[in-house]
Input
Amino acid sequence: MSIQRREFLLLMGGSAGAVALGSLTGCNRQATFTPSTTTPGVKASLSFNPIKSVIPLQTDGLKPEQQKEQYSAFEVVDDLVLPEGYQYQVIASWGDKVGDSRFGYNNDYLSFIPTSENEGYLAVNFEYISPIPWMQTYQQVIGKSLPFDEVKTTLKGQASKKSEINAFDLPDKDPNKAKIREISKEALLDQGLGIISIRKNADGKWERTNSKADRRISGISGLEDGRYLQATGPAVAVFRKKQGFGYIDKLADRIIGTFGNCAGGTTPWGTVLSAEENFQAQVPEPVYADGTSFEPGKRPFALGDEELFGQGNVFGLAANKYGWIVEVDPTNAEDYGVKHTWLGRYRHEAVGVRVEAGKPLAFYSGCDRRGGHLYKFVSSKKVNDPKDKANTKLLQQGMLYAAKFNSDGTGRWIPLKPDTPIDPDLPSNIAGNLIRLPKGPETKTSKQADKKTLFQLPDPIPGGNLEVTKDEQIAQYKKDFKKLNDLYTGNAQEKQGAILIDAHYAANAAGATCTARPEDTVIAPSGDLFISFTSGSSDKEGGPDIRIFKGPKGETPYEYGWIMRLSEDDNNPAANTFRWAMLATGGEPSAGGLGFANPDNLMVDRGGNVWMVTDMSTSKLNQAVKSRIDDDGKPASISGLFGNNSMWYIPTSGSDAGKAFLFATGPMECETTGPCFTPDEQTMFLAVQHPGEKNGIRKNQALETREFTVTTVTGEEFSQTRKVPLGSNWPSKNPDAPPKPSVVAITKSATT
Output
């Protein structure tokens, strides 16, 4: 839906009575980047001349006939495109040296921790491996080869014809195990997070200073170097178990590495919180009722021309140790990370930390999956000094809650603890009619399921949860289980640990609302929480509550995303109830959207304005839309209309309040992530991940001409011819050069 100025000002909240909130250290999404002059031709509330989008926007100010003329042809470019007068500088790229390791792959969340004026540490997350460009360019970039072809040949020669294998169970002397271990080690090395020291020199350029604190915390930290990660909270009791229903790695509370590191947050006391997101690609996600892991073989190693997953398999990583929030102090060269288990294990996307003196700390994060939940952790003790590093202890004791949204704009927080009642939502209220619930101890529903065929076990990993598709199944489930206590086993501490380890499924059982991929949680100066929900579609994981997540015309499912405001009752971070409102919707302007699709990271600057990047699936970028109707007479997917992933600026005051202006578009097949500002507001850091993810290296300047049926902002259809490069050569932009994920610094030219 389009949002009116008054509504948008309500969305952002006023500055009156603003509390001293967290995430104010360095550049964690709450600084501003405002040039001093207004570009000619743009209203006074803007300070740059917006770049041209691939489709007409309300902000163009063009009449329908002018839109048809100016948008009938469009050429997409393989570059980070910025407004006139702005420039970018590459700070670090995949393969660059960092300490005794290298800069990882698919850089995501960024956080700048200043140590002096124009100098500090840049913390960088490394999320995952994009198989096509990573394998294609590994030898060229890293300078050594890996046995990709040999392992692919071996897997294809198996009797099963599958491209996967349980390498963990292979004999140590098997040469295939050594090859798989080598590939997996390098892939996990390229994930995790890194700390690099940087400064701005006299010429206004940023340079690396390579301090002793520069280091990598990777997916294999601790495997051979003894740099294990630590853990706090109830799940430690499960990690220390010497025997249980499932697999135990015998490392007790020591943890090998961190991977799937997507978004994150920064605390007022100067530490960085790194969120482990899609860990299920490397280790099995479901767990047994005692919180122990499934065997490593439940997520086998897989390698194909377009796939690489199960990297934790050959090392026998215990899956229950992944999917957490990792806290790291960039300034402490000996700090290799702590996983705080009170914050829950799920597919963490972002982190919002509200820290106010005299009140408990509140931590917000979303589970980025279809049907994932919004969570809040509230500390048991109160904050004294928001900048005191001792505040890290507040993350070690408290309660984790999951959000329940009511259709009347109210909601409540459900505690995830043993005495919480079982009350799942009905599948009929969820897009896709699917919800997954904990299987529970073997003595109850699991055995009944076999007899009554009431439940269907999930594919491909059986055991940890039940697939519920009918409302009557919920009634049976509630007869079998009354409280979360009935679903998990062990002593009180172990049960609480198991619930936190199984947070997503426990939240499903407790009745938390299934949402539309919550990808960011940002706290505004007013204390309100803003959440970007990226996509309302469903899949085999589940889907969002159709009573809450609707398109501009009530459509369900709705793909293009929303921005929500959540206000704690009495503005209390520890409140049990809240109010919410959906204030912005993605999609075409002619259909009530603001012109972008799939909102991801949000930033709120000190002027209250919003900066937002998008997260469209690589497979959908620039895909032709020849017709609005598919072969079955149904509305066709129009995701390809929105071009490359992009960055938008949304003013919250003046005549342009509530409008979306296009600030940047990324290189081919990439995602722009982790935007971050310096305290002096003169530099924006931005991560560009997975350029060339679908086609790899752009060879011989290859491009393809595609046809699109576009609409004016008033809904009149017309044809567009679009030239689309195939693959990427960014950041060097030299012909046939390898695409490399990189971090850039964006500044405004002094002469502009």
